[in-house]
Amino acid sequence: MSSFVFLSLLFLLLQRPLPSLSNSEGDALYAFKTRLSDPNNVLDSWDPSLVTPCTWFHVTCDSNNYVTRLDLGRYNLGGTLAPELAHLPYLQYLELYGNNITGNIPQELGNLINLISMDLSYNRFQGNIPKSFGNLKSLKFLWLNNNQLTGSIPIVVSTLNLQVFNVSNNRLSEPPVDKLRCFRKPLVDGNFKSFPMERFENNKFSGPELKGSIRNVVCHT
What we know:
Order of helices and strands: HHEEEEEEEEEEEEEHE
Shape: globular
């Protein structure tokens, strides 16, 4: 009788569907991988069939198996940055410095509200610094230096409580003219005033903008 009950239970268990082997964080990281070129095969362990990406090299998780770190500095990675990285809501450290990643920095990275450190330096990123970075209220360290970024630094970024901020060696320009009050806002404003000037150098602005002064300009109506 007991054998019959055991076999019946086993049969019922086998009829239940198996749990999915994918999850949103694993899917996000695999989407990130598919957009990259990886000549040194450093992402070979990123197997999307595994239950969790926490066993993948260069990925760190917390005790609840949420991804908190992505460490891929100086691995000669190319390609572009996937907006799917925004689906890592517990990510605290995004370290991608010293690669050959190009294209725009996705606006979606502004959704990573638990991010403490983001290092995208020494790549080939183009386009503007996303205004969505103003949402990163936990961010303390932001390295964007040695890229090909253009446009001006979003004013909202100056409101962040950053300890380190570096945008040197890009193609950034001075802030736009305030046409209502006929002056150009200072580049180094808010918390930026505490950072060394070399963190802003080798861009397309200089002089008064770097010193934080206001420039009077002629406004045409």
